[in-house]
Amino acid sequence: MRDSVLSLFAPCPRGLEAILADELRGLGARDIAAADGGVAFAGDRDLLMAANLHSRTASRVLLQLAQGGYRNEQDIYRLAMNVDWPRWFDVSNSIKLKTDAIRCHFKSLDFISLKVKDAICDRFRQAQLGRPNVDTRHPDVRVHVFLTEDSATIYLDTSGEPLFKRGWRQETGDAPLRENLAAGILMLTGYNGSQPLLDPMCGSGTFLVEAADIALNRAPGRQRKFAFQKLRGFDSASWEKLLLDAQHAEKPLAKLAINGSDRDQAIINVAKDNLERAGLSGLVELEAMDVLDARPNGENGILVANPPYGVRMDELDQLAEWYPLLGDWLKAHFAGWHANLFSGDLRLAKLVHLSPKRRTPLYNGSLQCRLFVINMVEGSARKEKPGEQAETIEQDDHAAE
Question: How confident is the model at residue 105, as a pLDDT?
Answer without folding.
Answer: 86
